[in-house]
Amino acid sequence: MTDIEIALLNPSSIFKKPRDVLEDNSLTHEEKIDILRRWSYDEREILVAEEENMLGGSDVNSPLSEIVLCLLELGVDDDEKIHPPTKQG
After folding, report:
1. Among the listed residues 20, 11, 15, 17, the one whose alpha carbon sits nearest the alpha carbon of residue 60
2. Band of the pLDDT at 62, cuts 50, 70, 90?
3. In this structure, are residues 21 and 70 in contact, taking their beta carbons and an 8 Å threshold?
4. Coil, strand, or helix at residue 51?
5. Distances from the Cα of 63 to the Cαs of 20, 26, 67, in angstroms?
6. Is the pLDDT of residue 55 over 60?
């Protein structure tokens, strides 16, 4: 069983990849959406920090595109609605 509170605070500390969220049968449909949206927000923040040279660059590819695909599989197609044209909002 997934600790939903930790998963919402830091999804990547619980799940290795976004698809793992979809495959977790202990989560409700809404919990999966909430976790993936939080993960998406976190990844966007990292991208902004990298662009501003605050992290010094990263060798790890962002899972943002996989997160968006997982949200689409859950029937969520509001990425542009919840995230304005800028990465931070």
Report:
1. 17
2. confident
3. yes
4. helix
5. 12, 22, 6
6. no
